[in-house]
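Section 4.2 – Deliverable D4.2 (structural model, holo form)

The reporting period included a commitment to supply a predicted holo structure for the target in complex with iron/sulfur cluster. Inputs used:
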Amino acid sequence: MTVTSSPPRDTDAHYKVWDVAGYADVPRETKARLFEQVKGDLRFGDYLYGCYECGICVGACPSAKFYDFSPRRIAQAAAREDVDLIYQQMQEDIWDCSQCFSCVRCPRGNNPGGIVTIMREVAVRNGLASAKEALVGYTRIIYKIMSTGTQVSPDMLSKDSFPDWGPETADVADNLDLWRRALPPETMHTTTTGWSVAESTLIELYLIWMETGALDMIAEVDPGLHTILLELMEERLEEAGFEV
Ligand code: SF4
Ligand code: SF4
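Output (structure tokens):
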């Protein structure tokens, strides 16, 4: 089937025909394998009990107000085990969720935001193009948090490194001295870190990230960053007396 223009998005049927057509080149086995990973996650059974299609989650969802995104579609696709639609959602929709979990007011007991969390993790672990694209603007944040155990400080802001943070990022970066003089909050005055992290805490964090596979997830989406972090963590762990 050839689709030449953007179809209406007012029904799930239109949505499905258009978007699945966009991933017709991806083998069904690949899509099914990814869904098996989502379904195989220990949390999945607690996040999905079926769907009344009531739309209460959509009414509560802030992302649904601003994007072509619906937690109901996430829950329904998972409940129907529609691997084509789930693959499309993993390449597109899941990155529009703000992970606020307002959707847990679902009368069926579902947690569509939680399903999105699992889908994101599977997308990252498998190096899906959408995951690489979604995380490209966060390389410096990931590096900062995973190397120092703390947050990004204002002096790290630049519009090139954080393209999806909006025009205010460039304004803050270009006029940081002015912002510092104008605003009293302590965080605007930091130059290196948001707060100090104890050495023992940092070592614990390194061990957690290595043991849980959180560090390995980065290997698929940014091998260079993974190598840098791995070397840094191994060195610090060895200094602390751990055999890596
Ligand atoms: S967690 Fe995601 S899906 Fe749920 S309400 Fe928040 S933005 Fe919407
Ligand atoms: S609130 Fe729950 S039951 Fe209702 S549409 Fe959303 S996921 Fe389905």
